Structure to design on (511 residues):
């Protein structure tokens, strides 16, 4: 645990006094309506700050009492974990997004307007137009999150016991104060995340690493929906040796997040909780370690076919099709940013903006437009054609094809592709036998193979020793072909990869 600093009202009183004196001075003797308005705002800020400071000090004192009386129960030190229910982080997240969006646009829009209405000799000033475009993307995200929050209300997790126990279970029910009409996909996941903040000031960044995760699927008919409410059962086995919750370690904290999401008509359902997980000494037999679900209402991972459809996956006897229908929110975000960038060109044309701004915005627009097109049109097809595996990627500007020998596929690998919020997406890659050809380029071969072949040719021309390059080339797989794009969740990605390998090897498929 990080060292805690006791808050004091002494410094708070100084801040209140400074704000109050400055506010009263501007409000009483300031010149002009703007100065008086700023003064009134400072007076209000002083009153609000005093109330917040008093509440922080009071809550700190209460928390210290809980710590003294529960030294062996650190989960009781957090106010959010003392009550029978743990409320979702959704509402807090929506407020923070709107606050950040408001500040960002309040700072960026006046600057862009000033550059647009005045002539500038410094062409670098036109880079300021990029910031309102980011603000447009933030506004789209904030609007979607608000609609999601308003549609489903304030969800809460009712655990059977607190905390979740390392070596035992975390169980309970997620209560949604609205009826969730599930279309084709419902997921419940538990993740252990290490959250590290590095740098300072403008260079400060946050990196999250998943230490452990498990995801379960619930078929639509198993969601316990009633009039105006929905109950989602939860039960996860937490393996021994996992890292305990440590939300107070400042720049290096460990959080356990419980999430539930489902594709629904209109705005999709999603909720996230931060739950306590600690080692209490209780250990039970690991019913979930064999890869099977721990709750009887969960479907086994080998029976995911209905959920695959909701994730844009169509499976046939001799092949698969992969789409991006499950990435609705990301589609609209990139589409909105692309539309804003294209609209900006009209403004540039009417105000005779220098060419450097056209180039910079054009590059950024091309990247955003390509990402939007990939989300709308990024499809993959995999089929068995005789003794070959045919992978096609249809696109509006042309279709790419790869043909690889089915007998040379030794592995179907999953790789992280992108993370959107708490959801991780994976790509699926066909990996061939090692031993790239020294002379002939093969379909789907890696960039490393081409580079080594080029270096080998140059070395031989120079009369040098090429044995090391030949050995390296023989260790490189003959091909690595991506056959699926954004598959949601590690469990589904691994299940799809295993099914593809069984299909290629013409083995009995578990699904």
């Amino acid at each position: 645990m990080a060292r805690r600093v006791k808050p004091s009202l002494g410094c708070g009183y100084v801040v209140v006094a400074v704000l109050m004196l400055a506010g009263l001075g501007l409000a009483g003797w300031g010149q002009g309506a703007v100065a008086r308005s700023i003064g009134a705002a400072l007076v209000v800020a002083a009153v609000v700050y005093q109330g917040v400071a008093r509440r922080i000090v009071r809550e700190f004192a209460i928390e210290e009492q809980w710590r003294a009386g529960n030294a062996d129960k650190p989960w009781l030190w957090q106010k959010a974990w003392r009550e029978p229910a743990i409320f979702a982080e959704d509402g807090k997240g929506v407020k923070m997004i709107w606050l950040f969006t408001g500040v960002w646009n309040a700072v960026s829009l006046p600057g862009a307007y000033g550059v647009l209405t005045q002539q500038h000799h410094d062409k670098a000033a036109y880079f300021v137009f990029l910031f309102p475009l980011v603000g447009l993307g933030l506004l789209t995200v904030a609007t979607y999150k608000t609609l999601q929050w308003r549609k489903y209300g304030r969800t809460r997790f009712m655990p059977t016991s607190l905390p979740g126990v390392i070596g035992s279970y975390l169980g309970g029910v997620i209560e949604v104060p609205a009826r969730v009409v599930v279309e084709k996909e419902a997921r419940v996941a538990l993740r252990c995340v290490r959250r590290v903040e590095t740098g300072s000031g403008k260079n400060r960044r946050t990196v999250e690493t998943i230490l452990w995760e498990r995801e379960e699927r619930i078929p639509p008919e198993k969601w316990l929906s009633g009039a105006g409410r929905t109950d989602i059962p939860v039960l996860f086995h937490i393996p021994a040796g996992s890292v305990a919750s440590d939300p107070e370690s400042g720049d290096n904290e460990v959080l356990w997040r419980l999430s539930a999401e489902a594709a629904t008509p209109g705005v999709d359902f999603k909720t996230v909780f931060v739950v306590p997980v600690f080692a209490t000494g209780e250990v039970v037999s690991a019913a979930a370690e064999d890869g099977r679900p721990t709750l009887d209402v969960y479907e086994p991972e080998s029976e995911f076919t209905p959920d695959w459809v909701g994730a844009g996956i169509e499976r046939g006897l001799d092949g698969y099709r992969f789409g991006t229908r499950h990435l609705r929110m990301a589609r609209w975000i990139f589409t909105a940013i692309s539309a804003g960038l294209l609209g900006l060109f009209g403004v540039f044309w009417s105000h005779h903006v220098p060419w450097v701004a056209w180039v910079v915005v054009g590059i950024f627009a091309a990247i955003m437009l390509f990402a939007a097109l990939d989300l709308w049109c990024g499809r993959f097809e995999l089929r068995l054609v005789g003794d070959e595996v045919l992978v096609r990627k249809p696109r509006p500007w042309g279709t790419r094809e790869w043909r690889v020998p089915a007998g040379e596929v030794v592995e179907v690998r999953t790789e992280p592709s992108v993370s959107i919020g708490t959801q991780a997406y994976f790509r699926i890659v066909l990996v061939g036998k090692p031993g790239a050809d020294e002379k002939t380029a093969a379909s789907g071969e890696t960039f490393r193979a081409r580079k080594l072949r080029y270096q080998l040719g140059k070395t031989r021309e120079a009369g040098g020793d090429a044995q090391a390059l030949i050995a390296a080339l023989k260790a490189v797989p003959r091909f690595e072909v991506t056959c699926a794009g954004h598959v949601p969740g590690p469990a589904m990605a691994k299940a799809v990869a295993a099914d593809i390998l069984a299909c290629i090897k013409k083995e009995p498929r578990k699904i």
Observations:
- The longest strand covers residues 186-198.
- The chain has ten helices and 19 strands.
- The radius of gyration is 28 Å.
- Residues 286-293, 299-304 have pLDDT under 50 and may be disordered.
